[in-house]
Amino acid sequence: MAKATINDVAALAEVSIKTVSRVVNGEPNVSGATRDRVERAIAKLNYRPNPSARNLASDRARLIGLIYDDPSAWKIPSAGYVIRMQDGALRACKASNYELLIHPCNYRGRTVCDELRTLIEQFRPGGIVIAAPLSNMPRIVDAVAETGTPLVQLSPGGKPGGHYSVSTNDREVAAEMTRYLASLGHERIAFIKGHRKHRAVAGRWEGYLEGLSTAGLPFAENLVAQGDNSFGAGEACGEMLLRLRQRPTAIFAANDDMAAGVIRMADRLGIRIPDELSVAGCDDIALAQQVYPALTTIRLPFAEMAERAATALISRSRREPGLAGDETIAASLIVRDSTGPVRA
Fold first, then answer.
1. Of 234, 260, 241, 230, which is closest to residue 336 (Cα–Cα)?
2. How confident is the model over 223-252, as pLDDT tens digits?
């Protein structure tokens, strides 16, 4: 059986070829009834648009790129946040008949900017979503911007520099987590900082300090450890904090991987969770529910942020209103078994 063409769809739906094109490309100015008729014809004929032919009609491909730091360059047992970003961006692309190009890159490499320029020249994407920490590195953002490709920064950790950005309320929700631990009676609440180059996680440190202040708790420098977002850092920082003469009764880590490392170290030291120690993290990756006890954490809206960013780029490619400013999507506390009231 011959492959269905756009002419076949137009004939069956009794509309013009241009109307079919508008429906396929997710463009406005098509009535609901007409759109339904065209979509039924597409389904009946099993019509599949030719991406190459569509790309020839414009300077840019119907393609959104998602670039992020390569998790394999880190000693991290999970990359759940990457999967969630991909899921969100895919939802936006699928809804508008766009494709998603995912590209992990090592920002430590000397040729990363040339790598990105070559990628953009080869695929001509309609827009690029830049995930943290790449989104807060001027040389990488500038390398993409210099190609003239529309871009959105995810969690740039500061002013987006004229580019549209989508962030979450890291500081506010970290303060909320600290106050939650204080509400359980914890007065010695330790904090493990994230990687120094990740500006987004810096907001969690600021939130911790704010949470202590609003809970009326003093800041203690010896209850702070510097991590690097990895599981191993969580183990090392956890051991240091748990061997203090006056050890903390609660540890709040800037991400779930480090919190999971703390849980493992507490088990090695014979410290029961949550009876003797409460542990909290941030991200709500799959690992948070796989560790025992299940981790109290902050659910960051990675999927929603990436979906919003991709949707905005797709709208921009249709010459709809431009992108500007900083959009915030709120995170939320997820309370599980790793936290509990302080022991008398």
1. 260
2. 999 999 889 999 999 999 999 999 999 999
- CA atoms of 102 and 121, how far apart (whole Å): 15
Q: What is the DSSP string of 178-199?
A: HHHHHHTT---EEEEE--TT-H
Residues 6+ apart with CB under 8 A from 342: 184, 185, 186, 187, 249, 250, 278
Task: Count CB-CB contacts under 10 A for residue 102.
Answer: 15
In the numeric block, the tokens 């959104």 are attached to: 64
Report in angstroms the alpha-carbon separations of 71 from 64, 104, 259: 21, 8, 18
Q: Helix (H, G, I), strand (E, B), or coil: what is residue 252? A: strand
Mean pLDDT of the chain: 88
- CA 211, CA 282: separation in Å to the nearest integer? 15
C-alpha closest to that of 266 among 255, 277, 275: 277
Pairing of strands 278-280, 250-253: parallel
Q: Which of 19, 133, 20 is nearest to 67 (CA)?
A: 133
Q: Enter the tokens of residue 306.
A: 């990436």
